[in-house]
């Protein structure tokens, strides 16, 4: 397992965390909240962003306009089935979603969910680290690297892991601050 492979896994982990955090509804409208909702159209499940235009006319509203007006019902149904907790309102050939202001209780729930996502990301980073450490131990046993090299690689790996954990913590803190400021 080389450094670029480890970096790729860690980057994928950070991207996954950021995607999860974008889907948390914090009172401000964002296309990320709905763009990946699966819509049943033409016999296949398709992400909403591929069947409709998504716009933000106001800070607390999302407007969804299917490119094919016959898909309006399917889009509305998919939004209702999703777990975003917003009722879609059909207006002509478009759907309007109005985000209600967050209650204190909902803010606390979102903060807990944010921390849960962060912990999942840290566990994934830890698993990547353990896998790389096992690989180093194996390489040393097979005499592919010296003991000194193994310890040097471990130090480099630990520094990389620390940097990614710091990125995770910063992302969680930013999201928590965003949640509490609304």
Automatic annotation (TrEMBL):
<dbReference type="GO" id="GO:0005737">
    <property type="term" value="C:cytoplasm"/>
</dbReference>
<keyword id="KW-0648">Protein biosynthesis</keyword>
<protein>
    <recommendedName>
        <fullName>Ribosome-recycling factor</fullName>
    </recommendedName>
</protein>
<comment type="similarity">
    <text>Belongs to the RRF family.</text>
</comment>
<dbReference type="InterPro" id="IPR002661">
    <property type="entry name" value="Ribosome_recyc_fac"/>
</dbReference>
<dbReference type="Pfam" id="PF01765">
    <property type="entry name" value="RRF"/>
</dbReference>
<keyword id="KW-0963">Cytoplasm</keyword>
<dbReference type="GO" id="GO:0006415">
    <property type="term" value="P:translational termination"/>
</dbReference>
<keyword id="KW-0175">Coiled coil</keyword>
<dbReference type="InterPro" id="IPR036191">
    <property type="entry name" value="RRF_sf"/>
</dbReference>
<dbReference type="GO" id="GO:0043023">
    <property type="term" value="F:ribosomal large subunit binding"/>
</dbReference>
<dbReference type="InterPro" id="IPR023584">
    <property type="entry name" value="Ribosome_recyc_fac_dom"/>
</dbReference>
<comment type="function">
    <text>Responsible for the release of ribosomes from messenger RNA at the termination of protein biosynthesis. May increase the efficiency of translation by recycling ribosomes from one round of translation to another.</text>
</comment>
<feature type="domain" description="Ribosome recycling factor">
    <location>
        <begin position="17"/>
        <end position="180"/>
    </location>
</feature>
<feature type="coiled-coil region">
    <location>
        <begin position="129"/>
        <end position="181"/>
    </location>
</feature>
